[in-house]
Design goal:
Strand content: 15-25%
Distance between the termini: 43 Å
Mean pLDDT: 84
Number of helices: 5
Number of domains: 1
Order of helices and strands: HHHHEHEE
Strand order of the largest sheet: 1-3-2
């Protein structure tokens, strides 16, 4: 039983990236509550869900997990600032998301925006590869977001 409690505790510390990882009491969304781009994205996802009459528990969480993911990443960037040396470079490989009711989420540019708002320098965003979305067959980008912390 002890191992299950430890595992659950550990899982609650991870960045939320899908609906299965959402827990009651999650608060990472507060880190991006003033980010208009993310708030509009979450609104668009919820609006689309209602328009399509999608009522499953997972579908109802799409807008929430979007805010939790980006909020968790904002919290991550904030936490790193305390331990990074000036000049430290960071690289994140991230992909666009379109599976939340076909609302396009440009993850790389949003993460870059969040990081810059917290004092990180955006070096560049490089295209890593493209892939086809399973449901929509639209082209999704996977990118490397390169950042620098100057202290």
């Amino acid at each position: 039983m002890e191992d299950i409690k430890e595992l659950r505790y550990f899982k609650k510390t991870l960045v939320r990236s899908n609906t299965r990882g959402v827990y009651k009491g999650d608060e990472d969304h507060i880190w991006i509550s003033d980010n208009e781009r993310i708030q509009k994205l979450a609104y668009d996802i919820e609006k689309r869900r209602i328009e399509l009459n999608k009522t499953s528990g997972f579908e109802k969480l799409y807008s929430t997990v979007t805010k939790l993911y980006f909020g968790g990443m904002a919290k991550h960037f904030l936490t790193l600032k305390k331990v990074l040396k000036p000049g430290a470079k960071l690289a994140y490989v991230v992909g666009d998301q379109a599976s939340y009711l076909r609302v396009m989420i440009r993850t790389g540019s949003i993460l870059a925006e969040i990081a810059q708002s917290m004092g990180y320098e955006l070096i560049r965003i490089d295209l890593f590869r493209t892939r086809k979305a399973t449901a929509t067959r639209s082209e999704l980008r996977e990118e490397v977001v390169l950042l620098q912390w100057n202290g």
